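Q: Hi! New to this. If I give you a protein sequence and the SMILES for pyridoxal-5'-phosphate, can you show me the bound structure?
A: Yes, paste them in.
Q: Okay, here:
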Amino acid sequence: MPVTTPAAPLAAPSAPDRPDTLPQDAGALLRQDPEIAAVLLAERDRQAGTLQLVAAENFASPAVLAALGSPLANKYAEGYPGARHHGGCAYADAAERIAVTRATALFGAEHANVQPHSGSSAVLAAYAALLRPGDAVLAMDLAHGGHLTHGAPGNFSGRWFDFTGYGTDPETGLIDYARLRALARARRPKAIVCGSISAPRHPDYALFREIADEVGAYLVVDAAHPMGLIAGGAAPNPVPYADVVCATTHKVLRGPRGGMILCGAELAGRIDRAVFPFTQGGAQMHTVAAKAVAFGEAATPAYTYYAHQVVAHARVLAAGLEAEGFEVVTGGTDTHLVVADPAPLGVDGRTARERLAAAGLVLDTCALPYGEGRGIRLGTAAVTTQGMDDGDMARIAALAGAAVRRSGDPRTIAAEVRELAARHPPYPA
Ligand SMILES: *Cc1c(COP(=O)(O)O)cnc(C)c1O
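A: Thanks. Here is the predicted structure of the protein with pyridoxal-5'-phosphate bound:
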């Protein structure tokens, strides 16, 4: 039976200046350290004054930020609820039990570990639980949207495991499952990793499971990007198919920066030991509490609506970019992500990103399924949290086209972006 003791009461904000975005007595910070306070306020204004289209970003709620700024940040709680290496863990235990209960209910998983410090830490722990150094692993090639933890030479994954990359079809931009199956048969990997930083379409989890079973491999789904869509019922849930699901809590899911792992009961002990003590020390308990707050938010009808709006908005944005002359990878999107090639407008992804940034449209470049050129990658999670609608998405696409083509005065475009942002403050006063 989970303990439901409420978390320790949070100190009331007493800051004169927008306490909602600097929750824990921002007044004290302003008085004591004006230098760093000025940096934080400038970042707050940057986020509110430009449009955040980085696909991995979102605006956590004031409640999530309040948990992050709470005194639970002071608490050491190595171990797991009921089995800690420190005294005074009653409320830390309560926070973690609530987070675990909410996560398992939200995603329909038998077991959740909410301690990973980040998405990368979650993947590291998943590999630690299932693999030995040198084991063969299949994952999405980095040039096709794989994450650093999927075998990059500069990452622990590439150093310690024998990765082979599968990829996408250059024509369709979709996963080449025939090649994945052929590689699985040839390599006999210990694990197959399914997940990407830039796939605008859903993976076929049932087919991944089938291929993994054929060669006796574990299936690890790294759902860092779509986890929030999954929570809101706007994307298929990998939990019934995967041995282990890794995720972040700060992308579409809109919680604090951090990671999580879901698995079945039979792997629970191995996953927990792989997180602590194998790859981490004490968990950040304020972050664990903030994850619980985010899981609570994600279980509401308002969040379900949000997740579906995120996808609807990405579709409008993709169509708008296509109308502006961008080549949209896969011709559209099923998720929050849009990948577009600006080559038809005469520039590559890096130049496009620079011109867009100058206009106040903040986003990333990314690899394309074909050639050496780079594209741009956008997401609609943050602008949807701000309350923007379909019309705003169409406007963003038009402004992006104008900024990349350099049609019109760049200052006029930037002013329009600022005005659009100002109409939708991420943290209304
Ligand atoms: C974002 C992401 C991660 C890593 O998350 P961090 O919190 O930045 O470590 C891992 N895998 C995938 C697929 C991601 O998109």
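A: The two ends are 40 Å apart (CA to CA). Let me know if you'd like me to explain how to read the tokens.
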